[in-house]
User: Which sequence fits this backbone?
């Protein structure tokens, strides 16, 4: 077959396909409208009204010439070496001073931000954009520049608030929207300063919500495929109404460029932090004063719960709001101030967003029964010294020789002066000491280590190796597959683990 014959056959085939497509009936699901299927026709009008509120953040920091992990030492040259002048000039330029000693160099970085108050000149950005900066400058879309002062930062959410003096300049501001109303698949628009280019608009959708990327205690990111690159940090993520629903903060990228996986702090979290930084220059978060851990399927089964939901209280902090017995280790918090608690992240975030001093209702499961307790919240920032256990000697005397027993791969012994001294166990810890753990045992699989103390089994206190064995046998007779152990570290910090009994 000649080339011309082949081309003629291909044209006939294409014509047949075209005619078939014109005569066929295309089925479109009734719930998808043509406009929704195509996406927004244009975001030009929306972008035009928002570009003026988005700014570039330029920072500078003076660094000593001899500082930094990449500092290269000045080589030692023979007296009168012809290369002396060359190396002197090279290291003076590179490290900010002759031989890198006593000089300094200015390091600059770029990021993004947005104006939230045009009259007072408040600007929001990321904390990591301005961290350690000596000077901060805000660059506007019209080319003007203003020096900025730092109002306050919050490292836990990576948010910072700056202030500029408009000095007669008319600024454009944007407002926070409600990120709780956005859905996966909604269109969003990012504006920022990628790679220092400035005024860059990208469009995408909300790819996912409630993402935890292990960047902080309040991770609840919006994931988007709108292009976000280096320099976009601190810039806004808009919905199609022009409201800020997120602050662009992080990306996942092996290359450093956008691969369609970017993360934004939701406005529902960010707006409260921004308001506190504007008012107080710092955050004032609620504090419950409990140590919590996630509930696995095994723990849920051991506690008799219908599902692995809630936050398990693993310990109570001394001097905290619930150090009065209202909440106890082993309780499972399922609702806080009227909001459902599905996991530990929910509880951490809801408590932090609650006002200091507020009295709230806490719904919890205690030994299979639902109870409601009222708690007055403390302040998280005041709680840094209350988490450690008291480790002072009480002078109590106990027998030095204690019986031992073996169960679930653990060798157990009574807690007395000898075992406290051997493992450095705090005086306020009570229970049964784990003396040894057999390799490849059920206890070893759960990370139980020698020196830990079993304080409870299935929410019943134990004080001797015999108590432990009796509780294990009782659980086996009940048909339980796992034993729920509350363990205390040598400092007194508690955690729950489940150990297989088969």
Assistant:
């Amino acid at each position: 077959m000649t080339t011309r014959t082949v081309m003629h056959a291909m044209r006939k085939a294409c014509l047949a396909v075209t005619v078939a497509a014109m005569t066929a009936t295309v089925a479109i699901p009734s719930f998808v409208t043509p406009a929704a299927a195509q996406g927004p026709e244009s975001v030009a009008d929306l972008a035009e009204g928002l570009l003026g509120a988005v700014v570039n953040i330029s920072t500078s920091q003076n660094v000593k010439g001899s500082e930094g992990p990449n500092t290269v030492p000045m080589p030692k040259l023979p007296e009168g070496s012809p290369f002396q002048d060359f190396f002197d000039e090279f290291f003076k330029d590179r490290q900010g001073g002759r031989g890198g000693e006593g000089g300094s160099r200015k390091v600059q970085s770029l990021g993004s931000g947005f104006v939230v108050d045009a009259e007072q000149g408040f600007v929001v950005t990321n904390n990591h954009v301005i961290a350690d900066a000596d000077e901060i400058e805000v660059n506007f879309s019209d080319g003007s520049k203003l020096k900025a002062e730092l109002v306050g930062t919050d490292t836990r959410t990576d948010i910072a608030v700056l202030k500029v003096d408009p000095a007669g300049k008319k600024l454009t501001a944007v407002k926070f929207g409600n990120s709780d109303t956005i859905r996966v698949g909604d269109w969003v628009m990012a504006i920022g300063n990628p790679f220092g280019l400035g005024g860059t608009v990208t469009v995408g959708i909300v790819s996912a919500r409630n993402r935890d990327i292990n960047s902080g205690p309040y991770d609840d990111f919006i994931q988007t495929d709108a292009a976000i690159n280096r320099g976009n940090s601190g810039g806004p993520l808009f919905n199609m109404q022009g409201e800020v629903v997120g602050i662009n903060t992080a990306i996942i990228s092996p290359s450093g460029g956008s691969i369609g996986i970017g993360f934004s702090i939701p406005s529902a979290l960010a707006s409260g932090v921004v308001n506190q930084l504007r008012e107080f220059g710092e955050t004032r978060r609620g504090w419950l004063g409990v140590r919590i851990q996630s509930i696995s399927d095994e723990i849920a089964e051991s506690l008799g719960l219908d599902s692995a939901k809630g936050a398990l209280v693993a310990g109570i902090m001394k001097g905290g709001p619930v150090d009065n017995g209202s909440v106890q280790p082993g309780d499972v918090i399922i609702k806080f101030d009227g909001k459902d608690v599905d996991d530990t992240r929910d509880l951490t975030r809801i408590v932090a967003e609650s006002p200091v001093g507020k009295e709230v209702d806490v719904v919890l499961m205690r030994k299979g029964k639902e109870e409601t307790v009222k708690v007055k919240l403390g302040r998280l920032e005041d709680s840094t010294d209350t988490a450690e256990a008291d480790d002072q000697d009480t002078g109590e005397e106990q027998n030095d020789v204690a019986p031992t027993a073996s169960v679930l791969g653990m060798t157990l012994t009574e807690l007395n002066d000898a075992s406290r001294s051997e493992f450095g166990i705090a005086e306020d810890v009570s229970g049964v000491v784990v003396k040894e753990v057999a390799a490849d045992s059920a206890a070893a699989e759960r990370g139980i280590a020698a020196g830990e103390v079993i304080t409870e089994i299935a929410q019943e206190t134990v004080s001797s190796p015999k108590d432990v064995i009796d509780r294990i046998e009782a659980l086996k007779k009940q048909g339980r597959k796992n034993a729920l152990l509350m363990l205390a570290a040598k400092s007194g910090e508690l955690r729950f683990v489940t150990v297989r009994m088969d």
